[in-house]
């Protein structure tokens, strides 16, 4: 199987001592490509630096809703400059998170909209984050896009009506290790058969959300473990794992406008 971890955070300090080994381990597991996702100006710089250093890595730039309070026009200008690197293939992770509220709703919404505008102007796909926005995320998307949206809902954990709304807008759906967790993943496992195979992506969100069975042995998630996500996804949907892995790999390349891999 050829695998693409569509969302990870290899820029995290937890990998500072063994980045090269983690990438080699992923390659050995069949994970030939990884998208390193920026969440702040600093992490976006680090993500781009990593992508430019290692073959098979790509990067995104963006400000996470948790860090929206630190965003301003100057920061977005710097991210736009970073996006000139040929290794930058997306804008994000951006969106709304009304669960932890590290930034106020007003501030989150302001910079979410501003970042959508930047991404659209640069013709970059968007990596979206949504948690507990109670419909506000969709309202903003519909009000600030022309209809179809080139992007992915990262770590989807919503309900059926939200899923159908995302699909109707042309969005891809990112599936994480949550699908492998017996209790927490039950609702997700019921929904994934409804997702068209051409709209599926797999991701680790490493170092977070370690899938089973690896979570029984490792606290830190790694891109290599995205294989467990693929296997559980194929099992849940009743799909052939090799065929599904090929489809999802192609989906990821199509979303991020990556050719000749």
Q: How would you describe this structure to a colleague?
A:
With 261 residues, the chain is α/β, with parallel strands linked by helices. Helices cover 39% and strands 16% of the residues. It has nine helices and eight strands. Strand 7 (172-175), helix 7 and strand 8 (200-202) form a beta-alpha-beta unit. Strands 1-2-3-4-5-6-7-8 form an eight-stranded parallel β-sheet. It has one domain: TIM Barrel (Alpha-Beta Barrel), CATH 3.20.20.140.
Short description:
Helix content is 39%, strand content 16%. The protein is of the alpha/beta class and 261 residues long.
Assign the CATH topology. Answer: TIM Barrel
Instruction: Determine the fraction of residues in helical runs and give it as a percent range.
Output: 25-40%
Strand order of the largest sheet: 1-2-3-4-5-6-7-8
Mean pLDDT: 97
Tally the helices: 9
Rg value: 17 Å
pLDDT < 50 runs, ≥5 residues: none
CATH class, please?
Alpha Beta
What is the molecular shape?
A: globular
Architecture blueprint of SSEs:
Layout: E1 3-8, H1 19-28, E2 31-36, H2 41-53, E3 57-61, H3 73-82, E4 88-97, H4 105-122, E5 126-131, H5 136-144, E6 151-153, H6 160-168, E7 172-175, H7 186-191, E8 200-202, H8 226-237, H9 241-255
Helix pairs in contact: 2-3
